[in-house]
Design a protein that fits this description.
heterodimer, A: 115 residues, mainly beta, seven-stranded mixed beta sheet, four-stranded antiparallel beta sheet, 11 strands, 0% helix, 52% strand, B: 114 residues, six-stranded mixed beta sheet, five-stranded antiparallel beta sheet
Amino acid sequence: KAGVTQTPRYLIKTRGQQVTLSCSPISGHRSVSWYQQTPGQGLQFLFEYFSETQRNKGNFPGRFSGRQFSNSRSEMNVSTLELGDSALYLCASSPTTSGRANEQYFGPGTRLTVT
Amino acid sequence: KNQVEQSPQSLIILEGKNCTLQCNYTVSPFSNLRWYKQDTGRGPVSLTIMTFSENTKSNGRYTATLDADTKQSSLHITASQLSDSASYICVVAPGLTGFQKLVFGTGTRLLVSP
């Protein structure tokens, strides 16, 4: 089975711009979670989607949004980029809903640099 | 406040040597504890998941231990290899909750030197 894929792998944007990141989960997995990882902060939960519905949301401003399509692929959008948004954005898929934190499989991440 | 603290922050060892990484948590209630390996610029890869009733779990040269009474876990790497150079992240799941409640440590960066 192919693993979790994320595109693009690297991205450079300017402050004020917006960006869309894409994640394709493992085939058959219906839960997709997004995390932001910055040095010294560890992974921080952004949101989780299951069956095209946002199930949970972390403590991030409304500039961060996402969606999930019927094929379970997910996109994350960040509007009005700030320098502090520079980070590695990780997507993780799981076969079941997050009613219980089951095994997650992470993608390689998208490295976003905001200048 | 639920927290996970890992030590040391970074570690350098010689190839072939053993090492032990520590994870202390204050998460309550406890559901499970996971160790992940993250290569630079890549996503984390699961090494072990332990529930309350498990106190040891192995995955090849990686052995994780859990003491739920003292809320401590360790990851022991045997006969280290250059490919073990990575960050190791401890994650604790509080109770029967979802991914939004996972508590992540900031990781231990391990460098295995030839």
